[in-house]
Amino acid sequence: MNPALNIQVTGLMTLKQQIEILGMPTKLRRRLLARVGKKVISDSKRRVRTQTDLSGQSYPARAKKKRGGSKMLLKLARQLKVIRADGTEAVVGFYKRSSARIAAKQQHGYTQRVTARSLKRNGTKNQDSPATRDQARALREAGFTINKRKSKNGKKPSQKWVMQNLTIGQAGSLLRQLREQAGESPKTSWKTTLPARSFLGATKAEIRQYIDAIFKQIKQEIARGVT
């Protein structure tokens, strides 16, 4: 996967701007494009902080909220760099391809097929860890009960109780038993979908504003003799 984020500026500048920019020394064109790239990075970080996408809408709610999700996006945003800037283009992206792959999944969303075998293989070392919130919810929905004083038929435990008193392995075993008793066939595979959270890039209107503002700054710097 290409670790770069392409920002298209063609058609977003007036003819006068294009002629003036083309007449600039390569050094100044590089400066302008690099600053536009840095502005794109700054706005990408802001979107992560405010949890809003490119259209200004809040990120869609996820079916399974994982701890540290926002921190992961913040970490990704901090890794954004202007990785190349010359006289014709600036490239914003990641030096690490692994970061680029994760960012692409967050940006565009993705659907992944998970198998029971892969979960068992990857989760072998975690069988003695506390039961997860998803397991606790599934156990309650499957009718799991515990014996309580003054309760002959048992009582549904709270999610907190399950997470504090059962391990991942125990909860998984109980859940399989309850589903088998109910005549349900165990799933061997299923899909998990991660909704898109577009935090990278900029809209055409934003790019146009960046160019206008930064172009004026550079013209002022030229007038002051800053080259």
From TrEMBL:
| Entries under Pfam families matching the protein | Phage_tail_S (PF05069)
UniProt cross-references to InterPro entries, sorted A to Z: Phage_virion_morphogenesis
Q: Which domain of life is it from?
A: Bacteria
In this chain, the stretch annotated as Disordered covers 45-68, 106-134
Q: What is this protein called?
A: Phage virion morphogenesis protein
- The organism encoding this protein is Methylophaga thalassica
